[in-house]
């Protein structure tokens, strides 16, 4: 990677870090990325509202290859002292999406200057953290006849600057599930005259170990209770409303669907016994991220040709990633580059993206673009 291009990418990363924006509110971030590409490249820019993409049109135009970066931040305070620290209280880049976007821009500089025999598409996506972004951007695939798509994530707990790959499922499917139950209020001295969800919601919680037992599932299946809310702080009133919030997660979407159905069926049955109304709500929905072996083999090939160290992962990450929306439509692969085995984990106060990963990722992408 050209030294000047790397310097520009790092400077851009620091700018993005200082101006973090939450999912679906990335107005400044998106415009800054567009301005950077307009200033430093001759790429075509296609603005799609909350997201955009840039295009390098090759004279040869053999294939249409896409590369994706996300650019949203997290609702977390910046707790470490950085010269480019977040200017916005309660919002910071604690997952490294600033680095992903800066990398894609650095890659765009290299392709614009040095050329490529394939048409290269640079997709800049909003709202990865909530799972909204890729679902909205997936129309990009068919509209541009994309042949293949690649992406990467920085990953703590993995060897520094080492590329990590896996065939098949790379990250679990998940969603936020809320069960609402409503009965009837009564005076606290006459609980028998009311209908209280406090007796039904624990039955659902108690069922979780049986539903997630490895003996009845072929892959990892998890259900984390994140919040329970029953009644109010009013000692004269018997509770009548309750909500149980859970994150449900599975290696395979079919088992996630089964877990969801089991929880819904049990909640309905317990609600019916007591005469409760019940309803369900879902948010932050992520598909399983599945890598195509043909595409992952290309990552392996590039690493071998460029002398980039590579490790084969033995299992998928439990955390979710919305890149799977793309690989449901077209072949592609999502890989990881290590921050270091002892580096602060993603979504922690101590974390900051490591700038030295940019060049590794750009070199990998350059190799993939040329195949």
From TrEMBL:
Regions crossing the membrane: none
Pfam families recorded: M20_dimer (PF07687), Peptidase_M20 (PF01546)
Domain Peptidase M20 dimerisation: 172-272
Identification of the protein by name: Amidohydrolase
Organism (species): Bacillus lumedeiriae
